[in-house]
Amino acid sequence: MSTRIRKSAKERKVEIVEATLRLAAEIGPDRMTTEALAKEVGISQPSIFRHFPTKGHIWEAV
């Protein structure tokens, strides 16, 4: 049984922004979806929206 360590909201936001940059470089910003982003980070898509209410907010943070 694996134990998951819960990250702080600040740490998770940084992780999401970093993953956004990686994905944008790999597949292009126009093809990046929140579903792909969630998969890259290893969380659910609704979790992305807990930290950033819209995709636009993610890009503002980038």
CATH class: Mainly Alpha
Number of domains as seen in the coordinates: 1
CATH topology type = Arc Repressor Mutant, subunit A
Secondary structure: helix percent:
55-70%
* Cα-atom radius of gyration: 12 Å
Strand proportion: under 5%
Shape: globular
The CATH architecture is Orthogonal Bundle
Element pattern in H and E: HHHH
- End-to-end distance, in Å? 35 Å
Largest sheet: none
**CATH level-four homologous superfamily name:** Homeodomain-like
Q: Structural class from helices and strands?
A: mainly alpha
Low-confidence parts: none
Number of helices: 4
Give average pLDDT, whole number. Answer: 93
- Number of extended strands: 0
Q: Would you kindly provide a written description of the structure presented here, covering whatever features stand out?
A:
With 62 residues, the chain is mainly alpha-helical. 66% of the residues lie in helices and 0% in strands. The chain has four helices and no strands. Helix 1 crosses helix 2. The longest helix has 19 residues, at 9-27. The radius of gyration is 12 Å and the shape is globular. The protein starts with 8 loop residues before the first helix and ends with a helix.
Considering the chains and any ligands shown, give keywords for the structure.
62 residues, mainly alpha, Arc Repressor Mutant, subunit A, globular
What's a concise summary of this model?
The protein is an all-alpha fold and 62 residues long.
